[in-house]
Design goal:
136 residues, mainly alpha, 3 helices, elongated
Length: 136
C-alpha cells in the first residue's frame, strides 16, 4: 500500500514538473513574440528615410503578423490551460465526473502549442530575411 502511494506521489510530481515546464515555455514564446513585435514597430518608426522594396514590405508584414499571431496563440493556450485545470478540480469533487471537456481542452491546448511553434519559426525566418535584405 505504501509503495502504491509513493508511486502516485512520484507520478504527480512528474505531472507537476511537466505542467510547470510547459507554462515556462509558453511564457518564453509569448515574450519572444511580443519582443519581436516591438522590434518591428521600432524598426518601422525609427526615423529611417529609406523606402522599403516590395519584398521588404511583404516580409515585414508577414513577420509582424506571425509575431502577433504567436502572441495570441500563447495567450489562448494559457487561458485554455487554466480552464482545463478548473474543470479537473471540479471533476475531482464529484463522484461521476465527465472528463470529455477536459480531454478536448487538453488536445486543443497541444494543437495551439504546435501552432505557436510554427508561427514563431516563420516569424523568426522572415525577420532574418528582412534584416539580411537591409544588410545586403
Amino acid at each position: 500500500m505504501a509503495d502504491a502511494q509513493a508511486e502516485k506521489e512520484k507520478i504527480s510530481l512528474f505531472h507537476s514538473r511537466a505542467k510547470e515546464a510547459g507554462n515556462r515555455l509558453s511564457t518564453a514564446i509569448l515574450t519572444i513574440s511580443l519582443g519581436g513585435t516591438a522590434v518591428y514597430f521600432a524598426t518601422l518608426t525609427g526615423g529611417t528615410n529609406s523606402s522599403f522594396s516590395i519584398f521588404e514590405k511583404v516580409i515585414v508584414s508577414v513577420g509582424l503578423v506571425m509575431f502577433a499571431l504567436t502572441s495570441f496563440l500563447c495567450l489562448l493556450e494559457l487561458k485554455f490551460d487554466a480552464n482545463r485545470f478548473y474543470i479537473a478540480a471540479t471533476n475531482l469533487e464529484v463522484e461521476e465526473a465527465n472528463w470529455d471537456k477536459y480531454n478536448r481542452l487538453r488536445k486543443l491546448r497541444l494543437r495551439l502549442i504546435y501552432c505557436s511553434y510554427i508561427t514563431l519559426a516563420i516569424a523568426l525566418v522572415v525577420t532574418t530575411l528582412f534584416v539580411l535584405s537591409l544588410i545586403i
